[in-house]
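cron nightly-structures :: item 1 of 1
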Amino acid sequence: MASNSPAPEGIDVQEQPTAGAWGEWNPTEDSARPPRGKHRVLKQRGGLARSSTVLGVGVIAAVGAGGIATAQDRPQVAISLPSLPALPDLPEALGGADQSDGGAGSARTAEPVRSGIIPQQADRRSDAGELLRSRILQQAESQHEAAAAQERAEAERVAQEAAAQQARDAQAAKEAAEKAAAEAAEKAAAEEARRAQEAKEAAEAKAKAESAARTAGAFFLPTSAYTLTSHYGDSGSMWSSGHHTGLDFAAPTGTPVKAVGSGKIISAGWSGAYGYRIVLELPDGTEVWYCHLSSMSVTGGSVAGGDTIGRVGATGNVTGPHLHLEVRKGGVTVDPLSWLTARGLNV
């Protein structure tokens, strides 16, 4: 019974002309055209095609189980061998073949079967090569990724170490700056304390010197930061006697007025044209008049040389703030400038 099923790929069945009709065709090595593609027939050492038995099986499968059909009424059909899965040796597949011929039949039958597996083995070798290549590429890619990850980790470690070093440097610089600032502040405080101590010692020394001078009968200028504006004996209409009877020390209002020497206050109060006046009597009876005062600090009792007894002012008959100093001996005025100079004062 003929079959219309397409022939398997890989092997083409060649036409064998006979006298007037198609006859039975058994392909041989000389009549079979080499198959296209990867299903190539390997030669057997004896000179026959190793896949002849498999090809015959394929032809039988193509024409049907009822026998070999004739092709006289049918066109030529190309039959190709499909790729078959791996098969065990024929004796094992048949459950133990007849071994009466000493295994010769088994060898003859198994040889074509093995020849049909050769293309798939080539495919397996090709697939194994592709798999090996894929694994090598995957391994290379994994190694590359591992190396890149290691480089990134190393870069992060270096960055972290650099950041930590910068933090340590910044902390060290901050501590050094704080230490320097503390040392500078301590040094400034020590310098200020030293200056304050020196000023205190100088003030104490001055006070002792003044006290010693007062005890020894020393003399002092009546005021400080002054300007001499009128001298003893100057003439003019501003004075009732026609001439100036004292020495004028021009200074700002409120400038302290001091006792020129140790003595006692015998008079303090308002005195007409003299304004507020203090009269200091020295131990030898000399009187010193302090006139035109703005205020009086001491109005009676004993004082030491250099003590503040009043303040410069502009009371009485004046044209501006100043201290009018008069020196009288036995009720007669003397030149205050000469009198002070004679007692070692640089007026």
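cron nightly-structures :: done
The chain has a mean pLDDT of 76.
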